[in-house]
Design goal:
heterodimer; A: alpha+beta; six-stranded antiparallel β-sheet; 6 strands; B: 143 residues; alpha+beta; Thiol Ester Dehydrase, Chain A; 23% helix
């Protein structure tokens, strides 16, 4: 079943808040080979002006992709996850994420385009903090092969 | 962003390489990234599954490659100073079971906005001589 373009504009969430821990930031920084001490040590982060260890640039994907999961598993959208490749991604940070943040995501299907047997599903996740203040906007496009197999 | 670590805008010129290095990716890296990110798509750890969906074998998460690019930019820009970062995933990076895949990452000043005191940093990630990200650009606040 192909992706249903009529689900363009559909929104999901806000979902359960994600609590950003020092351990999560350290594990992510380690995985992407981010080496600054400000990702690992609170005292280094504070010396650089942050309240606590600061997340690497793409850490927001941890929260955004949890929201995206609701899009790709919505049966009415019709994404066959075995035929998905990630096409592009964009992070716009309204402020850096630090340990102790409580981040909540909502997600909207921004566009669905279909061409040459490929459906492209672009979502926009808006991340806000505990006070509802914007933290980051994450745009993500998945390309879904619509072959018959 | 952190004023303590902001790069000096005045000394930048378009075309300057501000950061760059090689980064080795192994299956261990993929497992760590899967756990850290919550992305457990089996194409990033299961060869049989990857081949079933038409890939040569296990490939790196595009977001891992993108994240490594950001890490190289941050080494110059300072953590928390990348305001915007985008990339297209143009070529998969196969990661063999026992050896490593080596990415070469460079970060070059692509444009300077003097009014906003922002630098556009163009990130090039190559694997075996071919680029694997398209239009990978980071906007760095310098004020």
């Amino acid at each position: 079943m192909p992706v249903n373009p009529e689900t363009q504009g559909r929104s999901y969430g806000p979902f359960e808040p994600y609590e950003v821990t020092r351990g999560a930031i350290r594990a992510f920084a380690d995985a992407v080979d981010a080496r600054s001490g400000a990702h690992f040590y609170p005292e280094v982060a504070r010396a650089e002006g942050y309240a606590d260890v600061v997340a690497p640039t793409t850490f927001a994907a941890v929260v955004a992709q949890r929201a995206e999961f609701h899009v790709v598993t919505d049966p009415e959208v019709g994404v066959d996850f075995s035929k998905v490749v990630h096409a592009d991604e964009r992070f716009t940070h309204h402020r850096p994420i630090v340990a102790g943040d409580v981040v909540r995501a909502s997600i909207t299907i921004e566009s669905i385009t279909q061409r040459a047997g490929i459906s492209k599903v672009t979502s926009r996740a808006e991340l806000t903090d505990a006070d509802g203040i914007p933290v980051a906007t994450v745009m993500s496009t998945l390309a879904v092969r619509e072959d018959q197999s | 962003m952190s004023e303590e670590t902001l790069p000096a805008f005045a000394s930048l010129n378009v075309g300057d390489q501000v950061s760059g290095r090689d980064v080795d990716i192994t299956r261990d890296t993929l497992v760590r990234y899967a756990a850290a990110s919550g992305d457990f798509n089996p194409i990033h750890y299961n060869d049989a599954f990857a081949q079933k969906v038409g890939l040569p074998g296990v490939i790196a998460h595009g977001m891992l490659t993108m994240g490594i690019g950001a890490s190289v930019v941050e080494e110059w820009a300072g953590p928390g100073n990348v305001a915007d970062y985008q990339a297209r995933f143009t070529r998969p990076v196969p990661v063999p079971a026992l050896e490593s895949a080596t990415l070469n990452v460079t970060a070059v000043v692509g444009a300077l906005d003097r009014e906003l005191q922002q630098a556009r940093i163009d990130v090039t990630v190559t694997f075996q001589g071919a680029t694997v990200l398209g239009k990978a650009q980071a906007i760095v606040d310098c004020a």
